[in-house]
Specification:
Rossmann fold; 16 strands
Length: 360
Amino acid sequence: MNTLKARIVDLIEALGPISVSEYFSLCLSDPTHGYYMTRDPFGREGDFTTAPEISQMFGEAIGVWLVLAWRALGRPEHPVIAEIGPGRGTLAKDIARTLDQLEPALRPSARFHLIETSPKLGWAQATTLEGTGGRFDWVKSVDELPEGPLLIVGNELFDAIPTRQYVNAGGAWRERMIGIDLEDRLIFTAGAGSLDPSLLPPGADAAVEGTIFEVAPARTALMQAIAERIAEEGGAGLFIDYGHFAPGFGDTLQAVRKHRPEDVLENPGEADLTSHVDFAALAATARAAGLDAYLMTQSQFLLGLGLLERAGVLGANADEAKRDEIRAAVERLAGPDQMGDLFKVLAILPRGVSVRPFGR
């Protein structure tokens, strides 16, 4: 039993079962033993690989979109360009390079910020961005960003924000909790708290015993803060993650370690813990703040911004091995049976502003 697991067992013994949301938060963000506080989990040597680590083409597409958004917004002076949850800094580096190439005047005018809570990842980001040119500043929350029009990006951000789970137990939707058995093993159990039935999607009446429903108020709160900031000061937001367009039922809580799934209760703090994102809820939150919100798959987004054309340019003077690598990257990023359909893209913009490849 690792140290964090022992602490969680002690906590449950003292105070009773904890919510899935609380467990989720402890696993990822505990100051001493939380997953993101103690390691760099990205890439082949880590536990999982994100799109920016697969190919520079992903970050370049994001950079192109930010340029298009900046132009559509009327080319505001001194925009704040921020990435929230910036991994090891690879996406920020590719964005900065793309902006230098497409809009040389934008880069010196913009104020670049990375929103990061992990000191270890902050150091990794600083190392990645060495020699990139320009200034990068680090903050811990959206509230700490300077005033001005905001162009913000989040890739695989919302999946790592804790979710709550409710289980259909005896006809009531009771909060799913984590307790311990007689041998101090972590187990799932139904708690006393119940969910307001009005928050359930269609089909709840037909749900069988044990059906899981997930709701993520912490994700909604973050989207609300970002959307309200953009509504007040202008800007645009782009968020990419794996999830679904419409709310539904099912347990999507999962743990990944060394690129393989494992029991979510087995090694808290040592495996990445995530759940699927409800993009409909995030879009509704942005619209409630007075913004337009657009949704599409990652495949539609990347192909709409010229992924295949960019791959052709990169492969034109490359050897066969490099061309095979580029083809594999395109397939992984945009293939319908890989990241292309599983990952969704949400764009939030001021009312009436349209940015390719999203339509009005």
